[in-house]
UniProtKB/TrEMBL annotation:
This is MurR/RpiR family transcriptional regulator. CDD domains: SIS_RpiR. GO terms for molecular function: carbohydrate derivative binding; DNA binding; DNA-binding transcription factor activity. Residues 111-251 form the SIS domain. It comes from the Bacteria. One of its GO terms (biological process) is carbohydrate derivative metabolic process. The keyword Transmembrane helix does not apply.
């Protein structure tokens, strides 16, 4: 009985293929357009008889029967790709809309003012959140801010013991549930440090910890985690912050860039 997956059927027959058979197989395995037997023979420079022998080797009576299954497979494969693309596009749009509904532009402006008024910014983030933190660092370092990304429990605890009311801490976490980090933030709050939390966690516990909480979209289920990188909802908020910061402090940013370029040219 022929395997329902034509591509797998071809792959599993490779041990008995000649060089000509492999040439024919490569055409089909590449998912190229279905062609008449005579046209295909000319296109890949083999004989029509070789194509017929190939069909029989993989379990078909003739080329017409192979074409029936091949057209079906190509169509299904194309539909699957289109479905994946449509699903991702829909989810990205849904994510943007969700963030747009949650975000308060006045809170964004307040965070931008915090960033401007602090010489050093500490970003707390674990795992994928640390990757988003590195993006924040890359962007804001380019416009004159000193950013340190702290991305493990021990370092967070140690750094937190050294910080005080003069410091700005931005905690990146979709769930916002890590007990170790929460404890460190509580101690920092007691010392009067400025705390910004970017998260999808809307609990009052998180809200009470921060001077400002910027809410982002959440990854809704396990399947979505596999399809969408976990840092994307955080990166979107970072994009918003960066764009707003540039808009608010364009003159300062331009002066810093000019100063840096003059310094580099002098060395």
């Amino acid at each position: 009985m022929l395997n329902s997956d034509l591509f797998l059927t071809i792959e599993s027959s490779k041990l008995k293929f000649t060089a000509v058979d492999e040439q024919i197989a490569d055409y089909f395995l590449s998912g190229k357009p279905p062609l008449k037997q005579s046209v295909l023979a000319r296109k890949i420079n083999v004989s029509a008889a070789s194509i017929t022998r190939f069909c029989k080797k993989i379990g078909f009576e003739n080329y017409k029967e192979l074409m029936y299954f091949y057209r079906k497979m190509v169509k299904e494969h194309s539909n699957d790709k289109n479905k994946v693309t449509r699903n991702l596009q829909y989810r990205y749009k849904e994510m943007i809309n969700e963030i747009d509904e949650k975000i308060d532009i006045e809170d964004v402006k307040l965070v931008c003012n915090y960033i401007k008024s602090h010489k050093i910014i500490h970003i707390y983030g674990l795992g994928l959140s640390a990757i988003a933190g590195e993006d924040f660092k890359f962007r804001f370092t380019r416009i004159g801010k000193y950013v340190e990304v702290v991305q493990d429990y021990d370092s967070i605890e140690m750094i937190s013991s050294l910080l005080n009311k003069e410091n700005l801490i931005i905690y990146l976490s979709l769930r916002g549930e890590n007990k170790h980090v929460i404890q460190s933030l509580r101690r920092l709050k007691e010392k009067g440090a400025t705390i910004v939390i970017i998260t999808s966690n809307q609990s009052s516990d998180i809200g009470d910890l921060a001077n400002v909480t910027l809410l982002t979209s959440q990854i809704k289920n396990a399947n979505e985690v596999e399809q969408i990188s976990g840092q994307i909802p955080l990166l979107i908020i970072i994009d918003v912050l960066y764009s707003q910061y540039i808009n608010m402090f364009r003159e300062n940013v331009s002066k810093w860039i000019e100063t840096e370029q003059a310094y580099l040219q002098g060395h």
